[in-house]
Amino acid sequence: MQAISGTSWKATTLSSDTADISNDDKSVCVICQVEFDKKIVVDSYGHAFHSDQRQCDKCIGVRKITSATQAKLEAAIRDGNFSLAQRLVNDHGAILTADILKVGLESAAKTLNVQQARSLFELSSSEPATQAVARTVLDGVLQKALASAKATTSLYMHRNTVEFTRLFFNHDIVNNELANIALYICVLRDDLVSAQEFKAKYRAQLEASHFQTVLRQIVQELEEGICLQKGKTDILLDLVTPDAATQTIAQDILTHFLQNALPQAVNMSRTKYSGIKEFTDLILGHHLGNIELANMALEICVLRGELESALKFKTEHRAQLGVTTFQKVLQQMDLKWETNRIDILLSLVMPDEAAQNFVLDMLTGLLQNALTEFENMSDPVYRDIMAFTHIVFRHEVINSALVNTALRICILREETEQAQKIKALYGAFVFEKEYGMHTIESFAEKIGYKLTTDRAKDYRNMARMVHSDKQQSSDELMKELNRLYDK
Prior knowledge:
Strand content: under 5%
Strand order of the largest sheet: 1-2
Oligomer: single chain
Order of helices and strands: EEHHHHHHHHHHHHHHHHHHHHHHH
Structural class: mainly alpha
Largest sheet: 2 strands, antiparallel
Number of strands: 2
Helix content: 55-70%
């Protein structure tokens, strides 16, 4: 709105009272700007005029003309004759009052006539009264649009509403409430470009109550197996301020949704599973979720056998697999030991003391059985057991008893290379008392080495089997020989 100099006029009855000049406000005539003598006329606004025709025979007449001009301006505005209204303001001193502006804006609002509203703003001032009138008119337009946003409103009508609102906002007829309503209307109409504009330019945001409505609609569509529109959802979440209210709403709705989805995880459709995974990831990425939501989403991925997706929730959102689901899935895995999947599964649950104890018991039973059945064990089964053993050890689920059992199995099967690998990687876990003083025959039998007639060679070979990390010709190796064989 542009500022218009002058006084707002209203038809009034003149007083014929005379008064002495008593202050600066009434020292000159408001029309001719000439100092008074002793006679003035004061209207109900407190404006002072000459009453002596000899002094200024036009003052009273001009005032009467101005009152008539105001009436003409109001009529021009009602008729939409803005060229005449412009002349009345520029050439005849007419003022577009708040009342007249209200009449004009309400007329423009009926048809969302942007040009008419723009002309009115060009004629009006930026006084608080006129701004209040404009805000009231715009609020009425937005409330009407909000009520019909999901009904029969055409796209053409919506675009006109946005353009009409944008005009008001550009003339500083805007506050948080109006901006937020405008944004929500755009969200309901899937006009996310305009919604983003209102947020960027006018700091609008999706209010908590509106966010709750939108979020419930998304969840309902996911429940029905409708594919998630990831890009749209990402923009919608970006329109929300992640404060305590919106976080509580998001967590309550998504917690209920995921709890219902968990029992159906294995048999749910691929579309629904993908929607759950992507939606939860977006909620967490916009800082609206919590670790419990991340854990539930991870568990759904694991139950579906989607371990790579589960690993993403752990890596990006610090989620962790519960021990109950871990035990269930690990026990159901094929005895052929899918090493890569087991490795990921252990990554998802560790560190967890209950899970560590479960894996220790499982590996202990497996190795003890292998130690008993080593002669009848096939090579593929042996390799699977060793692969599983190495995975468990790498995740620091390890003790000296397990290391020594694995080592003995390798020696008994004459898998020298595997035995050296175990000793080199996990030797720190082997207690020295396991290799106390032995005669060469008993020691060879213990580690499964077949003696030759060359005892010096036997010493070196056996030392290399249990201490492959030592250099053959080093002093350390000779010390190890002496320690092991009582030489």
